[in-house]
Specification:
297 residues; alpha/beta; TIM Barrel; 12 helices; 13% strand; globular
Length: 297
Amino acid sequence: MENIFKGSGVALVTPFNNDGSIDFDALRSLVRLQIEGGTDFLVVQGTTGESPVLTSGEKEEVLKTVIEENAGKLKIVYGVGGNNTTDVGEKLKKVPAGVDGILSVSPYYNKPTQKGIIEHYKHIAACTELPIILYNVPGRTGSNVLAETTLEIARTVKNIVAVKEASGSMEQIMEIIRLRPEGFGVLSGDDAITMPLIAAGADGVISVVANAFPEKFSEMVNASIEENLPKARKAHYDLLAVTKMFFEEGNPAGVKVALAKRGIMKPNLRLPLVQVSEALKTRIEKETESLVLESVK
């Protein structure tokens, strides 16, 4: 099975009302912003969507809303992961129609061996016919999926079609790119290194920043893929300052400030996450205003 998820993917945030309930109108506005802004595919209920604090029923409603508003325009990837392998497999058997692929994070907290990670992915892949994107994010899971592990999974599990790599190690990611089997995709999991990774042969990104700036971010991704280095480099550096700001006090608190500034949603989060400091909020709003003005020129 060949990877179909390329270009600028966006890990959608989940908008909340002041009372903590999900703001479905804002979610629809966010989906429209992505469609109009040049995004290639949507990721629903990744970490940026605050998935750990949503109930199973809320996750289903969020997915249903995105599918409806998207109306088949962009491909949809649904986040289904966890550290209970059997439970993840059972959830994958119940994924509804309208989902084009799955993003599944490597098991966290348990700290499995590399063999355990391989067996986990073999099991969950057998529970669905949908293509799966393996997600390696050691900073959150507590264990790194080594390049050789990803490559073994890529070679032996037919419906694991790509990896979202957020190890932060250019060497590790380039080793995967160098040795991957034909058709296996490599997606950046770090906004700040997306441009150089695509230049090194990666296929795209699953982005946080593109929630707020899909126009500029997709421009950077497309220019990188087309090997238009001057254009890609300019967009990359235009976005670099705000990218750093978005992660200063935790994700998705930063990007929600920018989305609030754009009038898409309120900057609310659910505990244990809290809103950014006033000082950071002011900086993000100023940078957002500048980037939005540039995008509409």
